[in-house]
Amino acid sequence: MPDGIAANDLEVLQLSVSEQARMWRKSGWLRRYWSGCKPVVLIMCLLATAPAVYADAGDEFMLFPQVGITHRMGLSPGSALDSNTVDTALSLFYTADYGQLRLLAEAAANEESLEVERLQFGWLIRPETTLWLGRFHSPLGYWQNQYHHGDYLQTSISRPGIAAFDHKGGPLPTHLIGLLLEGQQALGEAGLRYSVAIGSGTELNAEGLAPDPLFRPFKSQHGFAGAVRVSYHPNAYGPNEVGLFAGRNRIPAADLGFDAVEQRVSGAFFNWQSGGTRFIGAVFRVRNTLNHKAASVTALFSNGYLQVERQWAGEWALYGRLEGSSGAHDDPYLNYFSRFVEKKSLMGLRYDFSLHQALKLELANIHPGASGDRYQMLSLQWSMVYQ
Question: pLDDT tens across 158-215, in order?
Fold first, then answer.
C-alpha cells in the first residue's frame, strides 16, 4: 500500500468507485458507449498486432486529426443549423501486404460516433488486380474514391454536396458491404483502371440514408447496390485521368410508407494537372423511382461540380469551386435530404507547414435544397497526417 493511504481510506475509495460504476451501469451510458466502441477497439487491437504476427508484411499506419471552426451567416429565423460550431475528428488508416494477401482498414471518430468506415480483405489475383471482400466505398464518381475520411488529403475543407457520405446527409449510397474488384490494364505508357462493386448498400429513413451495419450485415432492410468505374490515365501512374461511372441501387424505405427507391446513377469525371494548376470536375445523372404499393413516381436530377486549385511557393494553394443542380426541386427523393447542397460557390486558401500540417480558410455561399435555408459559411480548419 502506498505511503499516506490508510486502510479505511482505501476502503472508502473502493466503495466510491464501485458506487460510481453502478450509477453508470444503471444509466446505460457506459453500456451504450462500449457497445458502439468495442468493435472498433477490437479491430484496432488486431491491426496493432498485425505487424508482429507478419514480420515480413509491408504495412502502413496513418492518423488524420483535425479541428474545424465554422461561422454561418444569413440563417433564417428558426433554422435548424447553429450559427457557430466547433468540430473535431480523428481518422485512422491502416494497410498491410503479405504475399498475395491485402488488408485495408479505416476508422473515423468525432464527438458523436466512432465508426469503421472501411474494412477490406484482399487477394492479389494477378499483378495490378485485387479482389476485395468487406466494407468499402462505392466507386461512383471521383471525390469519394480519391479522398476518404481524412480532410488533410483534400485541398479544400468541404466536399461537394453530391459527394457527401451517405451517413452524413449524402443522397447516394457510399458504403457497401460485399465484393470489390480493382485493376489496371497497361496501354503502352498509358493505363486503364477499373473498379467493379456489388453488395449490400443502404436503407432510407427519416434521417436520410443508413449504411448496412458492418457487424450485422444482410440482417436488416438494406438493399442491393452495384457500381462500375473506368478511367483512362495518359501516364499509367500519373495523377491525370478522365473516366466514366454507372451504378444501380435498391434502397428499402418501408419506414417512410413506400417499398423502396430504385436508383440509377451515371456520369463522368476528370482530374487534370498542368504546372501549378489543377482541375477537378464531375457530372452526375441520377434517376430515382419511388415504388409505392399503388403507383410509382420517377424523377431525374443532374448535379455537377468544378474545382480549380492553384499552388505557389510550394506551401500555398488558392482554390475555388462551383456546384450546381438541375431538376432537384422536382425530385421527391431529395425531400428526405435537408442537408443536400443543390448549389454552392466557394473560395479558399490553404497553407501547408511543418510536420505534414495544414491550415485552411474557406468562404462559401450555400443553397441547400429541401431546407431552403440559404446562407454564407466561413470555415477555418487545422488538419495533419501522422505516420
Answer: 999 999 999 889 999 999 999 999 999 999 999 999 999 999 999 999 889 988 887 6
Of 281, 214, 226, 284, the residue nearest 250 (C-alpha) = 226
CA–CA distance, 67 with 114 (Å, rounded to integer): 16
Instruction: Identify the residue whose cell numbers are 485541398.
Output: 155
Residue 367 is which amino acid? H
CB 68 within 8 A of CB 157: yes
Question: Which domains does the chain possess?
Answer: 1-50 (no CATH), 60-384 (2.40.160.10)
User: Is-contact 108 119, C-beta < 8 A?
Assistant: no
Interatomic CA distance for residues 331 and 323, integer angstroms: 18
Cβ atoms of 172 and 142 within 8 Å: the answer is no
Integer Cα distance of 28 and 329 in angstroms: 43
Q: How confident is the model at residue 30 (pLDDT cuts 50, 70, 90)?
A: very low
Prediction pTM value: 0.83
| Contact (CB, 8 A) for 175 and 157 | no
Residue 360: which of 168, 93, 151, 163 has the closest Cα? 151
Burial letters 274-299, b for 16+ CB under 10 A, else e:
eeeebebbbbbbbbbebbeeeeeeeb
Residue with C-alpha cell 458491404?
177
